[in-house]
Specification:
137 residues; alpha+beta; Beta-Lactamase; six-stranded antiparallel β-sheet; 5 helices; 6 strands; 31% helix; 28% strand; globular
Amino acid sequence: MNDSYEKLKEAMVEFGCQTGTLHRAEGEWLYLVAKEGVPDFLLEKISKIPFGKGIAGVAAQTREPVELCNLQQDLGGVAKEDARKTGVSGSLAIAILSDDGDKVLGTLGVGKIKPYEFSNEEKARLTEIGREFRELL
């Protein structure tokens, strides 16, 4: 857990983010492994997330980066109401895949307080960073 937390903090610093989460996949569920900057009132909601729900769950289901430029104004229904209460606006979650890409091992998510659109290069970099978490999941 300590290694997970340290790597999560490093990713947040690299991206200039104020929040971060790391989830481990088991079946069709994501379980919280490490978090930073997430309000305590959300812990129950994010400790176990089904694939397809919320930003992390959609990233796990689609195996693609999921970005919300402004979580506070998400009209597509990906962001849940409690997620808006974090005050985070720009957020990005990626799926962490096995070496062969056949299995979702977990998700890595970062968020900024201000609205922000992540570039394709940033999405690729967060995916690359996610590979470093494989051994910790």
